Amino acid sequence: MTTDIRAEVLAALADIAPEVAEDEVDPTADLLDEYDLDSMDLLNLVTQLNQRLGVEVPEEDYPHLRTLDGAVAYLSSRVPDPAT
Amino acid sequence: MIAAGAHLAMVPVVPGQDAGWACLSTAERTRATRIGSADVRTRFVTGRATLRGLLALELGCPPEDVPLGTSADGRPALLTPTPLRCSISHTADLVVVAVVADFEVGVDVERLDRAPLPPAASWLSPAERCRLDGVPEPDRQAVLVRTWTAKEAVVKALGRGLGVPLRDVEVDGTHARLAATTSTWRLARLPTGPEHVATLASTPVTSST
């Protein structure tokens, strides 16, 4: 499941910031600092993640999305379980 | 109340032009070195060097001696007690920097053709969406980008990081209010030329801190 979430986050990132090549993303790098994503990119990412994974991310949790690993960890605990 | 005497600089970002490197601190150089993309690194170096230049004028010291660091929430800030506040914003091709005394300040610049914009419901208040309905379609992009820069400028000046809902920053003309507070911000549109929109938000230090 974690692999799928990572793939979805990478696909969402590629969608909102095509210059962030998927195979180059350092999983611990700060996306805002090192890939120059800004608040608008982040809000677009939140929208994409909601569409792709069905997860609503409230504003106070946005800092979890600043790194790829952080986003995957955060989303893994919140993605609706298809078995239930 | 308007932030009197704000110092502004607008500098084009020129790929490969990292002349500002010489005045950066060790911490800034370390941060810049971690940035993988040369273009992104140039934006960072240009922003910091420009800010150091403005602060150097205020402090009467060389740019490399400006005690510029980073606050806990990632904003540029002076490391010594001072009434000076500062803010940096950039697009891929333009850096905007503001320095002002005794006012909290935030700047944001965007390209007018920025796309895609997030869904309106995710960042506009109900009143703002209502007003947007009355804006003719050809003018909408400009109104939306301008509104975005105003909200973003306020959020940056608040310094609370990414957690402030943009919907709670109510923009109306030359002012913005923060929902459920008495915090009021003066907005100034900055003269960036036809391809960009930039807004400066300010409020007296004492009323918001």
Please describe the biggest sheet of chain A, giving its number of strands, its sense, and whether it closes into a barrel: none
Shape of chain A: globular
How large is the share of residues in beta strands of chain B? Answer: 25-35%
Low-confidence stretches of chain A: none
Average per-residue pLDDT of chain B, rounded, comes to 91
Query: Assembly type of the shown chains?
Result: heterodimer
Total DSSP E strands of chain B: 10
Strand order of the largest sheet of chain B: 6-10-9-8-7
Strand content of chain A: under 5%
Number of separate helices of chain B: 5
Number of helices of chain A: 4
Provide the gyration radius of chain B in Å: 17 Å
Tell me, rounded to a whole number, the average pLDDT of chain A: 86
Q: Rg of chain A to the nearest angstrom?
A: 12 Å
| Apparent shape of chain B | globular
Biggest interface found: A-B, 22 and 25 residues
The portion of residues assigned to helices of chain A is: 40-55%
* Distance linking N and C termini of chain A: 15 Å
Order of helices and strands of chain A: HHHH
Termini separation of chain B (Å)?
Answer: 16 Å
Walk me through what this model shows.
The complex is a heterodimer of chains A (84) and B (209). With 84 residues, chain A is mostly helical. Chain A is built from 4 helices and no strands. In chain A, helix 1 crosses helix 3. Chain A is globular, with a radius of gyration of 12 Å. The relative contact order of chain A is 0.19. The model of chain A has no long low-confidence stretch (mean pLDDT 86). Chain B is α+β, with helices and mostly antiparallel strands and 209 residues long. Chain B is 31% helix and 29% strand. Chain B has a 5-stranded antiparallel sheet with strand order 6-10-9-8-7. In chain B, a hairpin with a 3-residue loop joins strand 4 and strand 5. The longest helix of chain B has 22 residues. The radius of gyration of chain B is 17 Å and the shape is globular. At the A-B interface, helix 2 and helix 3 of A face helix 4 of B.
